[in-house]
Amino acid sequence: MKDLIVLAADKNMEHALRGLLQRPQALGIRSVEAEIFVHPRHDPGCLNEAHDFLRPFAGSHRHALVLFDHEGCGREHTAPGELANEVRKRLETNGWTGQAEVVVLTPELEVWVWSDSPHVAECLGWAGRQPPLRDWLAATGQWPAGQTKPTDPKRAMEATLREARKPRSSAIYLDLASKASLHGHSETAFLHFQQTLRKWFSI
Length: 203
Description:
By secondary structure, the protein is an alpha/beta fold. 43% of the residues lie in helices and 13% in strands. The two termini are 19 Å apart.
């Protein structure tokens, strides 16, 4: 029986998760044998159909994890926690009793990109550029003083890549997840993700 099956909303999320799971010590967990799938209908698919997608795997994997963005799921008017509870309950009644968890990223995956790690600027093509990336984002009004993240994390990432003339690709998410420090992350969904893994796969 394998440790974990993960259902992600898109390729960027898949690559980020692969990068993170390659670093069990940084997450504070043991090494995990995981399979990661992308739902063909992305965020709405994960929200509405995760239980159908994952039902066949209930006998072959110890745990299931579902991740999708709040922005773009089709029910942005509903609180992320409520959506996670709905999906978890459907998983529970479809073979995953006590074995599944749901992480809703708010607003989107890119909120995980922004940390104090110097690898962020490097992975986004900003290494050696002046002014420093955070200063440039502040000067362009995308990262106001006193905020821990840019106002719109996805737009800030896209603007950075455009300015640095670095093509956007899923490989950037793998690179970031493989290198950037995980210390000091205060984002709720990331902490929930990490705490869930620590509960299931403690060292």
